[in-house]
Write a structure and sequence with these properties.
The structure is a single chain. By secondary structure, the chain is mostly helical. It has a domain of 117 residues: Four Helix Bundle (Hemerythrin (Met), subunit A). It has 7 helices and no strands. Helix 4 packs antiparallel against helix 5. About 8% of the residues have low confidence. Keywords: Membrane, Transmembrane, Transmembrane helix. This is Periplasmic heavy metal sensor.
């Protein structure tokens, strides 16, 4: 465990773990969308309005392309569901260790490494999915699609700012 490569790996895994916990905590406790906001995310066909509408309006997908996209999206959900279930199982096993008084570092580090490997699988699967969706594009649509995906992931990686009304709910005033 004293090799520099192992320390770097543990630091990376710890950062990934803390990031995942932070994002999960944010969505579970701080981000409670109202019913109207939640309903507006889905159309009558059960499609996410975000990327589906962007592919239609911004990229210019035809009805046939949108149909193919929907099939790909449904298959992607089926593929990702067990991967997320496995991630949840491994994280649960890690956090169940909090109840134990003497847990060897090797056990928690092993769980963190499993989480890191699972996150890598999820990221690579997502990358492959968006590459496959890209094959639906015509040559004229490719720059628009690439821009859409870059913007989408850029927005996902930026921390969201809380509005003034949100900050007053959680701030304690003396």
């Amino acid at each position: 465990m004293s090799r520099p490569g192992n320390k770097n790996l543990l630091i990376i895994i710890a950062v990934l773990l803390l990031t995942n916990i932070g994002v999960l905590g944010y969505f579970l406790w701080f981000k409670k969308p109202g019913k109207q906001q939640q309903e507006s995310r889905w159309d009558s066909k059960g499609n996410s309005n975000g990327i589906y509408e962007s592919l239609q309006k911004d990229v210019g997908f035809s009805a046939d392309q949108l149909s193919q996209y929907k099939q790909m999206k449904d298959k992607q959900r089926e593929t990702l569901r067990p991967m997320f279930d496995e991630m949840r199982r491994v994280k649960d096993s890690l956090f169940r260790l909090l109840k134990e008084s003497n847990v060897p570092d090797s056990i928690s580090e092993n769980a963190a490494e499993q989480i890191g490997r699972q996150q890598t699988k999820l990221d690579l699967q997502t990358f492959a999915y968006f590459r496959k969706v890209r094959t639906l594009c015509t040559p004229d649509q490719l720059p628009k699609y690439d821009s859409l995906i870059q913007n989408m992931f850029s927005k996902m990686s930026k921390p969201q700012r809380r509005s003034d009304s949100d900050s007053t709910k959680t701030d304690k005033k003396n």
